Amino acid sequence: MTEMMRLIELHDIRPAQVKQVEVGANHAMTQALLHHRPQTGLEAKFSMEFCVAILLLRRKAGLAEFTNRVVQDARVQEMIAKVRYYVDPEAESAGFDKMTSIIKITLKSGKTISGRASFGKGSPADPMTFEETAAKFRGCAEYADWPKSKTDA
User: CA-CA distance, 148 to 153, in Å (whole number)?
Assistant: First the structure.
């Protein structure tokens, strides 16, 4: 998701531009993220397709995005259908000690944008900074309707 967001921001990708997104991973990742056409917020938490789609549509994937209402939105479902998540031989051969993801975004113009990540953000190999952790906490607190003063404290 971190690499996908980096590509979206770097190339200023807009949902209307996207023809297809392909995400290749090892078989263990594809088995863990097993909901290819999620219909609930819980299923979305285990769906690479949803995570990619929501990043394209909202440029974020916080708690508020993983709700039944958001997942069932027609625009979200339409974008999910454009995402192909599959076992990639290169990602498979990288080994299971990595979470290699190979991303290829095809735009309607014919341009392709590619990226690759070996570890997810927050993993020991790519830990979150204090600022990133604080921002995530603030997002969770906002979702829980905590008062800002309590969050800041």
Answer: 8
Return the CATH architecture of domain 2-120: 2-Layer Sandwich (3.30)
pTM for the model: 0.91
- Sorted by sequence, the CB contacts under 8 Å of residue 85 that are 6+ apart come out as 23, 25, 30, 33, 36, 48, 49
Length of the chain: 153
For the chain, helix (H) and strand (E) counts, in that order, are 9, 4
Domain ranges, ordered by start, for the chain: 2-120, 123-153
Instruction: Give, as one character, the DSSP assignment of residue 65.
Output: G
Residue pLDDT, tens place only, 66-100: 999 999 999 999 999 999 999 999 999 998 778 89
